[in-house]
Amino acid sequence: MSRRGWALFALIGALWGVPYMFMKVAVAELSTPVIVFSRLAIGALLLIPLALYQGSLRSALPYWRYILFYAILEMVGPWFLITSSQRDLPSGVVALLVATVPIWATLFAHRTGDTTAAHKTRIFGIAIGLCGIALLVGIESLRDVGNIRALIQVLLASISYAWAVNMISRKAPGVSGIAINGIAMTFATLIYLPFAITHLPEQRPSSHALFATIGLGVLCTAMAFWVFFRVLDEIGPARASLVVYPNTAVAVVLGIIVLREPLTLAIGIGLPMVLIGSYFASRKPEAAPIAG
Predict the structure, then answer these.
(1) Measured between alpha carbons, how far is 128 from 275 in angstroms, rounded to an integer?
(2) What's the number of domains the chain is made of?
(3) Which among 96, 99, 36 has a CA at the least distance from the CA of 71?
(4) Domain that holds residue 39
(5) Does 210 fall in a domain?
(6) What is the dihedral of CA 207, 264, 80, 161, to 10 degrees?
(7) Per residue in 223-237, pLDDT tens?
(8) Considering just the CA atoms, what is the radius of gyration of the chain in Å?
(9) Which of 70, 123, 273, 281 could covalently link to 106 via disulfide, CB atoms 3.0 to 4.6 Å apart?
């Protein structure tokens, strides 16, 4: 990987590791619909002009039905579930559960005809990852039974993420990711608009909550998606998918250092198992050499 590739990879790892901290700060003063709406609106306002500049918006419009479905699976549902779960769970635990996306993606790929998903290496990864999830959920539930609902919310969001990417990659192949996500954010913004209006804060939020929400939209949504697709072009989808590992580490470290969250037993046991499992689950087996 080139220096440019490493730099972009590190940047997207940071950009997608920071949102858990931002969400944790924002949910203390703002409702979930307001946070998600703001994030989506900012993202759409920045990505749509970029897609127009690239000339990719027009080619994505014929796929609007699939993009609408993608918006629901990728943003409307998961962003609500993940943001609201931050009220009950440490940000590091939330990030760790989101890191299970490659495991679910591999399972969906198998159902849609990817024969490599049944390779023993990937099955090993799925098994290790699922054990990590079980231990993480079990330990967190013992620590606080009230966490069960929030844990299930994040797992549902992770499954929805995986399904969304699997679906849109099959239904809209070759379409610009910037255009797809810009349109999807526009759809999702319109869906959230009435809920945001009815859940406005009764008093002016602090600058911390406002800056955290703006950071979610500008850095962790618009800029992150733009950088991610540049990473795809630079190092390819196989390596780019590994970004789940540094962003999880960033989220856990920020939670401990900045938010003063404890390094729990659940994180200590679940982190290595989930990350190792996700790595092997998302790893495609190398083609067998041709005998000469």
Answers:
(1) 9
(2) 1
(3) 36
(4) 3-282
(5) yes
(6) 130
(7) 999 998 888 777 666
(8) 19
(9) 281
Where on the phi/psi map is residue 236: left (φ > 0), alpha (ψ -120 to 50), or beta?
Answer: left
Check if the beta carbon of residue 256 is closer than 8 Å to that of residue 92.
Answer: yes
Token pair 């856990």 in the structure block, residue? 252
Query: What's the pLDDT tens digit per position in 135-171?
Result: 766 666 666 656 788 889 999 998 998 888 888 888 9
pTM for this predicted structure: 0.84
Q: What is the DSSP letter of 40?
A: H
Cα–Cα dist 278/270, whole Å = 12
Rounded CA separation 193/197 (Å): 6
Alpha helices in the chain, H assignment, sequence order: 3-15, 19-26, 32-54, 57-60, 64-71, 77-85, 91-98, 101-111, 120-143, 147-171, 177-198, 207-217, 224-240, 244-257, 265-282
CB atoms within 10 A of CB 88: 18
Residue 261: per-residue pLDDT: 84
Would 289 be classed as within a structural domain? no
Exposed/middle/buried for 189, CB within 10 Å: 0-12, 13-18, 19+? buried
User: What token pair was written down for 91?
Assistant: 């940000």
DSSP 92: H
d(CA 172, CA 157): 22
The verdict on residue 61 lying in a domain is yes
